[in-house]
Amino acid sequence: MNFCPNCGRKLELGLIVLRERPMCKTEDGGCGFIDFGHYTLGAGGLVVLDGPDGVRKALLIQRGEEPNRGGWTIPGGFVEFDETADKAVVREVEEETGLQTRNLGMVAYRNRANPGDNSSYVVFLLEVTGGELRTEPDPEIAGAGFFSLEEMQQMPRLAPLSYELAAAAIEDRLQLIQAKQVQGVNGAPPFTLYIQEGSGNRV
Ligand SMILES: [Zn+2]
């Protein structure tokens, strides 16, 4: 980032929280903005159903757009800045597949520091509550459907991360990390805290 997104001034390097970061220096008349870097948060949804033949299947979508056009993944997308990840995943799954869902809990988190951004992805287990699976393609989504483990193993363009997650869901290997409401400070709204409480791990 070269210019301040708030006031348009040229950013200068300043030492902030132990390293040099582009900032809009107040001593030069700037607004104080600090560029801490680029972070993204995505949310993915796992939906598993028992087929009429008793075989468990997971919901996948085929991407209609770049990046990875034609590739298969579990449904989901980016979390907007004014929504929480648990709301985003329900919204994205309905937009992409037509299925309305309820969030049962968080099951996975993946994170990677890329050259240009720090990318996070959080995955929830969802239960279908309504809607109908939309199968006709649109520009964003080329296809959607439920697939067994065997079928997924024959899909050359299934993302490895999605396979890992969907296989764990089909084989009932996932542990739900439950949501808990925690009070904010100074009158701020509560947070949703995902925390796996159990018998403890004394170190
Ligand atoms: Zn500024």
Q: How many separate helices?
A: 3
**What is the CATH architecture assignment of the largest domain?**
Alpha-Beta Complex
Count of discrete domains: 2
Bound molecules: zinc ion
At the first level of CATH, what is the class of the largest domain? Alpha Beta
Predict the CATH topology of the largest domain.
Answer: Nucleoside Triphosphate Pyrophosphohydrolase
Shape: globular
Secondary-structure content class = mainly beta
Indicate the radius of gyration in whole angstroms: 21 Å
Q: CATH H-level name of the largest domain... which superfamily?
A: Nucleoside Triphosphate Pyrophosphohydrolase
Main β-sheet: number of strands, strand sense, barrel status?
7 strands, mixed
Fraction of residues in β-strands: 35-45%
Can you offer a commentary on this structure?
The protein folds into two domains: 1-37, no CATH class; 39-174, Alpha-Beta Complex (Nucleoside Triphosphate Pyrophosphohydrolase). It is 14% helix and 40% strand. The protein has helices at residues 85-97, 149-153, 160-170, and strands at 12-16, 19-23, 39-50, 56-63, 72-73, 76-78, 99-113, 118-131, 141-148, 178-182, 191-195. Strands 3, 4, 5, 6, 7, 8 and 9 form a seven-stranded mixed β-sheet that branches. It has a two-stranded antiparallel sheet with strand order 1-2. The protein has a two-stranded antiparallel ribbon with strand order 10-11. A hairpin with a 4-residue loop joins strand 7 and strand 8. The chain is globular, with a radius of gyration of 21 Å. The relative contact order is 0.17. The structure holds zinc ion.
